Automatic annotation (TrEMBL):
PANTHER family: ABC TRANSPORTER, ATP-BINDING PROTEIN. Residues 2-228 form the ABC transporter domain. PROSITE patterns: ABC_TRANSPORTER_1 (PS00211), ABC_TRANSPORTER_2 (PS50893). GO terms for molecular function: ATP binding; ATP hydrolysis activity. It comes from Gloeobacter violaceus (strain ATCC 29082 / PCC 7421). This is ABC transporter ATP-binding protein. InterPro entries: AAA+_ATPase, ABC_transporter-like_ATP-bd, ABC_transporter-like_CS, P-loop_NTPase.
Length: 289
């Protein structure tokens, strides 16, 4: 469905956004993970055809997108990071407006989308009165209005409260079948339950693109837990890669990602995706396919 070959973007200032990224994806949900400034937005903007690469190729459904961007634009839904609503339009008017821009003239489709994102009961309230989560849901509705084959959402859960995060995540997970959804975030839990593939980028380079199970398997045997006193914990916290630390009655349970057993009393534990991300970012830049 989507093939990216040696894609790079160097800005006129000389800053490197993305460097030599190659990916091949079919349907499902790709979670694009990376720290702030890793290049997620740059990559997504190139895929959304609003930034031109300096090198490389993008093919979607076997069509060269750099030569024929309109082919993808007609099949694309895009929720940018800085998406804003028009405050004085109602949810219905807002969505109807986007529908018209995308050549969708069905009032029924607008109502159907409002129902999908659970805004149908507030369809005639002005969007300016909505919470952050409601605005994001309106954003996803405009991205879906043309029934896109490729849906790109850039850090959609930033600024949402925990309940809204879960609701939004479930909504995206349900869209995945038969389509390709690309969701960027720097928060592992945002994609943990819905991603069928995970790509990790660091400083513009792709470190990994693999199913979550494969990332977990490669991190197996690299995660340890040790129970430490506060003083011991303070002694090791800056020298070891800590994935989590939980205070319990018997001490601080520190979860450590390391190539070899990091402390005498550390015991190996099963890896989770947070561990895998930490391992990849710190130890194994070329360990994943
Ligand atoms: N228009 C631009 N001009 C110059 N440099 C840019 C431009 N846009 C992005 N960059 C640089 O490219 C790199 C990648 O930025 P990008 O915004 O793609 O990262 P990101 O992973 O989306 O980060 P965040 O999570 O903070 O949004 C950064 O070093 C950034 O400073």
């Amino acid at each position: 469905m989507l093939d990216i070959h040696k894609l790079s973007k160097v800005f006129p200032s000389g800053a490197v956004g993305i460097s030599g990224v190659s990916l091949s994806l079919d349907g499902g949900v790709l979670g694009l993970l990376g720290a702030n400034g890793a290049g997620k937005t740059t990559l997504m903007q190139m895929l959304a055809t609003i930034t031109t690469p300096t090198a490389g190729q993008i093919r979607f459904q076997d069509v060269d997108i750099l030569r024929q961007p309109d082919y993808l634009r007609r099949r694309l839904g895009y929720l940018p990071q800085d998406f804003g609503v028009y405050d004085n339009l109602t949810a219905f008017e807002f969505l109807n407006y986007f529908a018209a821009l995308k050549g969708v003239s069905s009032r029924a489709r607008v109502l159907e989308m409002l129902e999908l994102v659970n805004l149908h009961t507030v369809a005639h309230r002005s969007a300016g009165t909505f919470s952050g989560g409601m605005k994001q849901r309106l954003g996803i509705a405009q991205a879906l209005i043309n029934n896109p084959d490729l849906l790109i959402v850039d850090e959609p859960t930033a600024g949402l409260d925990p309940e809204e995060r879960v609701r939004f995540r479930n909504l995206l997970g349900d869209i995945g079948s038969g389509k390709l959804v690309i969701l960027s975030t720097h928060i592992v839990s945002d994609i943990e339950s819905i991603a069928t593939m995970i790509a990790v980028i660091k400083k513009g380079r792709l470190l990994a693109c693999a199913p979550p199970e494969a990332l977990l398997a490669t991190t197996g045997g690299r995660v340890w837990e040790a129970v430490l006193s506060s003083a011991q914990f303070d002694g090791i916290r800056s020298s070891l890669k800590l994935s989590a630390a939980v205070r319990k009655p018997d001490g601080i349970h520190a979860r450590i990602v390391a190539q070899d057993c990091p402390l005498q009393n550390a015991v190996p534990v099963e890896a989770n995706l947070e561990d895998a991300f930490l391992y990849l970012m710190n130890f194994a830049p070329t360990a994943f396919g």
